[in-house]
Amino acid sequence: MRTSRLEQVATYTILGVFTVFALFPIVGILLSAVAPPEDALGGFSLPSSVRLANFVDAWHQGHFGQYLLNSLIVAACVVGATTVLATMTGYAFGSMRFRFAQPLFYLFLVGLMVPQEAIVVPLFYDLRDVGLTDTYWALILPQIAQSLSFGTFWMRAYFRSTPRGVVEAARLDGASSWTTLWRVLLPMGMPALTTMVLLVFMWTWNEFLLALVMVPSAEDLRTAPLGLSFFQGQHTSDFALLSAASVIVAAPVVIAYVALQRKFIAGMLSGALRE
Questions:
Q1: Which of 23, 143, 172, 186 has the fewest other C-beta atoms within 10 Å?
Q2: Distance (Å, rounded) from C-alpha 135 to C-alpha 176?
Q3: pLDDT digits (tens, 9 = 90+) for 100-109
Q4: Full-model pTM
């Protein structure tokens, strides 16, 4: 379908306006992060000079080396476990026929529907009774459970969309269900798998409420967003230092997205085109 020149101008104008709205606060944070303290007064302003020492000061004063390491450990465990488990559950629900498949799948979807705020307090008491609060497990296990609901839903949609002829051809060649999954279907589904990995990584990295509740007295187990919150409480008026700390905490997610953006977009588009 061809669009008129007027429609193209209107489309680019609208996209341009929303792009400015989206980039304005990000550029403001970046400018404040490299500005001298006397120039960073909040909002959008050009610094008189570039001061990269703000990042060094924020890194040391906020203990972000330890907090980033904690976030990396939690994210790696959650993403790794979710990827393996969601691939197998998605394959079972999307490609196999067995009794109670539909009720079990809807049971998985409950994890997508129940808000985290409704379960975080009873979950804290449950984990405290078994001695898991103030440990990595209190951060990892609940997030694996939360991410598995979405991962199962996402991978089931992918496996249901794969051509049946590919699976039947693999079976005719003597491939087992396991071989069909790992040698045939997964290599074809790398965009969908990469999209799921990146989404789970971003959600895990940005998780705040769970970290705030589950590690109340273990300062050395704080994650990067939680550490940034405490850092903000200690430096409420130093916008340059706060902006530098925000950039440090957000950088891993931005780097991961930039590195995987092609497969991420391909996975999102393929998901959007499915029935």
A1: 172
A2: 40
A3: 888 999 888 8
A4: 0.85
